[in-house]
Structure formats: structure tokens, C-alpha cells
Amino acid sequence: MDGVPRVPKQWHPGPEEPAALRFSVLGPVRAWLGDDPLPAGSPQQRALLAALLLRDGRTATASELIDALWGDEPPSQALAALRTYASRLRKTLGAEVLVSESGGYAIRSLREGALDHVNAQELAADAEKARAGGDLSRARDLLRDALALWDGEPLASIPGPHAETQRARLEEWRLQLLESCLDMDLEQGFHAEAVSELTALTAAHPLRERLRELLMLALYRSGRQAEALAVFADTRRLLADELGVDPRQGLKELQQRILQADPGLAEPSAPKAEPVVALVRPAQLPATVTDFTGRASFVQELSDVLAAASSEEGRVMAVSALAGIGGVGKTTLAVHVAHQARGAFPDGQLYVDLQGAGSRAAEPETVLGAFLRALGTADSAIPDSLEERSALYRSVLDGRRVLVLLDNARDAAQVRPLLPGMEGCAALVTSRIRMVDLAGAHLVDLDVMSPEEALQLFTKIVGQERVASEREAALDVVAACGFLPLAIRIAASRLAARRTWTVSVLAAKLGDERRRLDELQAGDLAVKATFELGYGQLEPAQARAFRLLGLADGPDISLAAAAAVLDLPAEATEDLLESLVDTSLLESAAPGRYRYHDLVRLYARACAERDEQPPSERAAAMSRLLDFYLSTAAGVYAIERPGDRLVDHLEPTAHTGLTFEDRHRAQDWLYSEAISLLACVRQSTQDGFLRRSVDALWASVDLAESGTNSKAYEGVAAALREAAQEAADAHAEARALVTLAYVHYYTGRFEPAREAAAQALELAAETDHLTSCWASNTLGVIALLQNQYEDGEAHLTRAIESFRACHDRAGEASALCNLSRIHLATGRTGSAVSLAQQGTDMYDDMGHALKGANGRYALGLALTQSGRLAEATDVLGEALAVFRNSRQRLWEGMSLFRLAEADLAAQRPAAAATNAETALTVLRGIGGEWRRGNVLIVLGQALNAIGHSGRAQVCWRESLDIFQALGSPEAATVRALLNPMAVA
Fold first, then answer.
1. Which of the two ends of the chain, N or C, has the fewest CB atoms closer than 10 A to its terminal CB?
2. Please, are residues 37 and 31 in contact by the beta-carbon 8 Å criterion?
3. In terms of C-beta density within 10 A (0-12 exposed, 13-18 middle, 19 or more buried), how is residue 786 classed?
4. The model's pTM
5. How many Cβ atoms are within 10 Å of 147's Cβ, its own excluded?
6. Long-range CB contacts for residues 497-504, cutoff 8 Å, separation at least 24
7. Is 100 helix (H, G, I), strand (E, B) or coil?
């Protein structure tokens, strides 16, 4: 604390105005003039100040004040002492502030915002109004602001019976505000986040039944029913032991509702839209085209359906599904109709391209996450599973009028979870297939334009003057386009951009069927003919860019990566890409990022295979892209791990990548490019590419270590290992196995990790010293986790010697920290601390912030077991801060887990429970079940220590199930925890 109370500064003195007085009673009793602290005197003098401040300007008589300060046993000179205190305060505060009247005293003439407890009262009152008005989000924020005004114990160190009474009152008020705030947390869907706070509060206030009730509800809504029931059992036992009473009726009823899996408990009791921040109205519709033409009957038909859904009589959600071949104008029509209907859906419009035509259609759970965020739902409130996200999505939309446009859907199964499901809402769906299996949908089959409509569209784009004199030629053009709107738009745009061309010239070009694809599926004939037309009208540089950029597998491509593919400066590349965007052959996904429509990408690749001369240029383009990713990833690795020798042993690249000024920008690049980088690596397994691909994967190991991209990383590592085996490339296979071992380790699958590392060591023993070093290091860590300490020490000792031999200090530091844990597991705590400190110091000397945090993690473990708990907590806290700042969720969660262990050892079970609960939340979905099982052990121990023995048993039973399924020796530890309780 800086000594200044957290009070909203509602008044700022001007140059000629005196600074304002401010006071604090929600903590130590203090006074400030502006930002300068004022002396408040002795404890008795501060007691007088507190008594006057808490009367809110009313006069207190001398006898009342004497009773407040000394109670039933005042000193003989109490009145004189009171007057002395008052005189001293008046000198500090001013005679106009501390006034004497009617034989007593009062504090007056304070400005707005001067008293922290008054500010808290006003914030609490505003919160009640917001809650009554249905604005739970604002109410919750206001209560959090009010609670933030407390700074420890109210009236801290103030003596006297009045101070004691007021201290209890203020603390009770704080708890009531906390309960209200947590109640609203649950109503808004923040169940998982509330569990850790409620666990700590119930430990601090074990007899407060409302907190127990909220904890039960939070656990139940987090999918932890057994723990919720265990809380009730713990509460009933505690109340009987301490007070001889049963839980109150509300707590009993909640237990029964949980036992019966009452559906009403699964949703907030307040209006279901409350998880969303109030007044968030998404407006995601793409811009409608200004030259929209025709389709009058379809526009009317769809508008009527939407109007019926949005009317007061609308009782069901409306779904309209538009079907037709690619390029027929489904999206243009849907967006046009949606814009016209915006007024009928005042609560917002959502849009998504479901990418159904490609091989990687959008996953419904990913789309739901984006929709929920757009509707104001916090990331922390968004559940993991598709079913839970879909249910929350419908809840958020309940009572709102929202239009959802689901563009380019693959099939009905992809669409169903994304439908609003609420009356007053509507969905427009576009797809290449007719969704006859989408129950209740209004189906619209969209065909090509009529000749008249097609000619109108062509004319609007090209201009009336040019078309009027060549009407027949214009009709030939639109006919050659198959009357498809997309084809017409591309052809007309090209003609409009070339003033020297006539319509007849364009018609003649379209009449040359040799320029069209030889083989077409009947339904796609017009679409591909349109692509051929657009491609045929490109300038040579544009055509080359169109062909080559389509070779990359990623969902999109950055400007920098595209420049590498084309071997051009960024400025020239951007000009080319923007010109392709103008022709509709390329889309601008975001500033500096570009993507193809799925079918256009396939066509671009066909053009590359057919037209790119010499054919080797295709391989050269992909080679440049791989070089770009390898070089840039190596630069990120070097920034994150200064002194690490891996970057000196990567395959050479002929083309450079990006450079970064700091590690945060480097991290931004790595995580934003993760999907595209992994896609490029996966497709680059041919001869001449494989070793660079493996090295690019190793250099981007942060993607696996963070837990964010572990699954995709593992798939690529496995594919590279298989490719290396087929190519009989032992060097590439060994390195691919190292990456595979890493990702198995990070996801808690230790035996597959051991097998991969052992195979890597065998393959690399004679040919790749660095890979051999890291394989030995990995084998040592895995042996530790499998309780094979002798083997682990041998592997790590070998790794240390090997790292030293090749002057790899970063590798040596890693192996030293890992060896520290072996020493710790075998009872050599002194040497464990020494080894971890040595490794951490080496990291620090190299400026190695991220791996230095790993060193501190190992050091924190050693210090904890050595009994140096304060040091351990500090070191682990430092590691936690770095991991959070580096987006390393796996290590963030594990650091919280180790902090919980240190808290337990230091007899701080409530803090341990909070840290363990938070660790579970952070590690959700990453790190593997083994790590989750260990966190549950510690959480159970912490809960047991604070009297939540029932919940502790639930945690331990879940942990036991995990370790038994894994065949892990930790199962014996858990059985030992459970058996005494089972006997009792």
C-alpha cells in the first residue's frame, strides 16, 4: 500500500483552491490533505477521530465520547483528556472541520468523497439500484469497487468499546457485500472463478451458512456435484459440533435439489441473459454491396420470415436456409436481407463464415466462443464443451432479439448448436447443400440470376454508357458467366478497370473455352469458369501471386509470409495482394492478413500445377515460406532463451525471417502465426524440406509448452517422425522424436515421452550431439516423474557433461535444475537447493527470463522441502509472474500448485486451497490428468485442514481414480489419505 486510501477522487483542487481533506476508517484510521498524510496522534486520539467520523456529521456529547473511548472505566481526568485530544485534532484538521457545539464535538464541512465508508455506502446503494434494474454486470462492478475501499481490518488498532462494536459492524457489512457480489458472480456464470474465493472465505468464516450455500452452488455449476454435497456434510457436522444445531432450511433444500439434479440449478435464477455485459449489441454483418441487383422475390420471402419472427406475436425462432452452388450469391443475398431487417433485431446481429466448403470447417464450439465473447461474456465464464457453450449461448440470447447469419455452412450438424433457439431471434444460413434435415427451417433454393437481372448487375458495375452501345455483347458476357453473380462481378470489375477494352473484347475472351478448366463437376461448372475468367484477366505478376500463395496450407497468410513466398519486398507484395482483393480472388481477413475462399484456393493450386514455369518454382516458393517460418521461429527462440545453443545447430536457411525488438512482440508473432506455421511445417516433409521442418517445429516448442497448441503440435511432430522414418533420415527422426517427447511430457503422458526420448537418444548418439544432450535431459526428467531416481540421475549427469562439452550453458542450467529435483526426491535437500540455485543463477547471467522462471520453479520446490518457506513463496511468486507474462499457462498452473504446497507447509491452508483451486482452473484442458491428480491431492489436504473433510474426500477419490487409471504410484499416497477417514 502507498498509504493513500482507494477513494474515488470526485473533486480536484484548482490552482487557487486548497487541497481537500480525506479520511479512512475501513482499515487504519488515517487522514490526508490532498495526497499528503496528516498526523492522527495517539491511539486514543485516533479513537476520538473515528467516533466522530462514523457519526456522519452529527454532534457527539462529551459523555458519549468518553463512553466510546473508555467504556465503563474512564480515567479520572477523562474530560480533560478528551478536550486535549480534540484540541490537537482541531490544530491538524482546522477549526471549521472539528467544531464544538452544545458541549460536544462534530466533524463538518467535508467535501464529497472525503469519507471512505460513505463512499462505500453510496457505491452499495448504486449497486442495489443497478441490480433491481436488471443490470447485474454494473451492480457487480459497483460492489467490487465498494469492497476495494477496505484496507485490512476496519479501525485497526483503535482501542475502546465503541471501536470494537463498529469494527464488528463494518466487518459484517463487508461480508454481506461480498455475499451479494458472489451471488451475482454465480448469476452471471462465473462459477469456476468463485470457487477459490468461496473456499477461502468459508475457511475464514466457517459458521457463515450463506457462504457455504454459495460454495455448494458454485461447485455444482462447475460440474463438481460430489464436492458440493461434501460441503453440506462438512457444514452439518461443524454446526452440530460447534453450536448443536442443524443447517438452516435453505441449505437443506439446496442439498436436496443437488441430489435430484434439479435443472433449475443449472441456470442462474435471474434472467438468463445476465452473463452478458449489459448493452452489448454486436453488429457483425459484413457490408452490403451498393450495387445489389434483383432477387426481389427472394428478398421479399426472406424478409417476411424475419418480420414474423421479430413481431410481438412471434412465438418461435425463425430459421431460413439458403442453398445453391458456389458463387450464386447466397452470402450477398443473406447479408442484404439481414441489413434490411436490422431494425427488427435491436439487440444485435452476429455473423460467421463457417468455412463449410473446405477441409477444415469451423468447429461449432469455436464459433460459440466467439459469439459469446461478442455478446459480452467474459472468457473465464465460457465453458469448455460444445453442449455447455450452446446452452449458455441460448441462455444469453433469451429475452433478446438477435439475428444470426451463419454463412457457408457444411451441414445441419454444424449449424444446430449455433441456432439461437429463442423466440424473437432468427437465423439465416447459407450452404452449398440443401438442409432438408434442419428441422423447422424455411428452405430457399437459390438459382442463377435471370438474364435481365444479370445484365442489370453487369451494367451497374461497368456503367450504362459502355453497355448501352453493346447490349448483345453484354448479354454474351453474362451468359458466358453462367449468370452467376460472382462471375459477373469479377468480369465486370475487370472491364471497368480497363477503359481501353470494349464489352466485345471481354465477350470474345469469355467465348474461348480453351481458357476454362477441362474437367468440372456439373454443379460447379459456372463457378470454376468464373475463376478461370478472373485468373485469365490478371496481369502476370498478379497471376503468379495468385498461384503461389494458394500453395500454403494455412487458413490464412500474413503479409510478411506472403512476401517470402513471392520473394518480393513487403510493399510490392501488399500492392499485389490488395489488387487481388479488388478482383474478389483473395479476401482480406484482417489488416495484414489474407485468405482464399476454399474453392478459389483449390483453383489457385490447379493453376500453379498447370501454369507455373518452371515447375521447380512451386517448390522454391514453399521453400522460401519454410525458411521464413524457421528463421523467424529461431529468432523468437533466441529471444526467449538467450545463450541456448539450439539456434546454432538448426538447418541453414537461404531466406531471412522477421526480427523483434523485445520478447513480447516475438511471442505475439509466434502465437498469432501458430496455426499457419504448423500447417506449413506439416506439408513440408519432402526431400530437401524435412530437416528444416523438424527444426522449425523444435524452435517453436513454446507452442507445446504453453499448452495452447499442444494437440496440433503433437499431430505435426508425429507426422514428421513418420516422414523421417520413410525417408530413412535418422537425424530428422531423432529431432522429431525429441519434439514428440516434449509434447508427451507437457501433456502428462510420461511413458510415451520416455519411449520417444530413448529412441531419439539412440538415433542421435553418433550423429547429433545436441539432440543427444536434450534427449538425455528429457529422459532424466521423465525418470524423476516415474520414480526411477537412479536412472534419472545417470541421464541428467550425462546431459550436464554433454552440455558442458559443447558449451551450452542454457542446456546445462536446465539439467542442473532437473538434477536438483532428483536430489530432492532422494532426501538430499541441501544439494538440491544448491543445484537449483546454480542453474537459476546461470539463467539470470544469460538474461534468460522465461527459463529463469523454470529455474525458480525448481528452486522453490527445494526451498519448500528445506523448510525455508518464506523464501520458497517469494521465489515461486517470481516464477508465477514470469509465466503469466509469457502466456505459459501450463507452468502458471504448476507454479500455483507449488505455491499451494508451500502454503500447506507454512500452515496456511486457506491460502493453499485458493492457490490449488486457481491451479485447477488454469490447468483445465492442459497438462494432462497426472498433473490434475496431484493438484487434487493438495487441494484435498488444504480443504481437510480448514474443516472441509467431505470435500477433501471427494478430491482424493477423484485423484485416486486418475492415478489408478494411469497406473501411477501416487495412487498409494492417496489411499493413505483416504484410509484413516474411511476407518473413522
1. C
2. yes
3. middle
4. 0.64
5. 17
6. 497/582, 502/466, 502/470, 502/473, 503/462, 503/466, 503/467, 503/470, 503/473, 503/474, 503/477, 504/470, 504/473
7. strand
List the grid coordinates of 458.
453487369
- Could you give the C-alpha distances from 260 to 219, 264, 266, 788, in angstroms and in order? 15, 11, 12, 47
H/E element, 590: strand 587-590
Cα–Cα distance between 858 and 852 in angstroms, integer?
A: 10
Cell of 68: 466510546
Residue type at 519 in one-letter notation: E
Predicted confidence band of residue 7 (pLDDT cuts 50, 70, 90) = very low
CA 238 vs. chain centroid, Å, equals 39
Kindly list the strands in the beta sheet with 442-445, ordered across the sheet, starting from the edge strand earlier in the chain. 349-353, 403-409, 426-431, 318-323, 442-445
Q: What would you report as the CA-atom Rg of the chain, rounded to the nearest whole angstrom?
A: 35
Contact between 329 and 295 under an 8 Å Cβ cutoff? The reply is yes
What the block records as the C-alpha cell of 172 is 459484517
**Residue 33: closest CA among 106, 87, 119, 97:** 97
Q: What is the pLDDT of residues 343-391, one digit of tens each?
A: 888 889 999 988 775 557 788 988 998 899 888 888 777 887 888 888 8
Given this model, what pLDDT does residue 2 score?
A: 37
Separation between Cα atoms, residue 582 and residue 578, nearest integer Å = 6
| CB neighbours of residue 360 within 10 Å | 12
E strand or H helix at 33: strand 30-33
For residue 447, the one-letter residue type is D
Residue 966 CA to residue 314 CA, distance in Å, equals 54
pLDDT tens string 243-286: 888 888 888 888 888 888 888 887 564 433 344 344 578 888 88
pLDDT per position as a tens digit, 328-352: 788 889 998 999 888 888 889 999 9
Residue 884 is given by DSSP the state H
- Strand, coil or helix: 431: strand
Report the run of H or E that residue 536 belongs to, with start and end: helix 525-536
Indicate the average pLDDT of the chain: 85
Looking at residue 325, its pLDDT comes to 59
Cα 930 from Cα 276, distance rounded (Å): 35
**Count of CB atoms situated within 10 Å of the CB of 627:** 21
601: pLDDT strictly greater than 70: yes
Helix and strand counts by DSSP (H, E) for the chain: 44, 14
Q: Do the Cβ atoms of 223 and 942 come closer than 8 Å?
A: no
Which residues, listed in sequence order, are joined to residue 254 by a DSSP beta bridge? none
Q: At what angle do helices 829-845 and 849-865 cross, to 10 degrees?
A: 160
CA distance 316 to 305: 11
Positive or negative torsion for Cα 98, 102, 104, 108? negative
For the four alpha carbons of 511, 516, 519 and 521, in that order, the dihedral sign comes to: negative
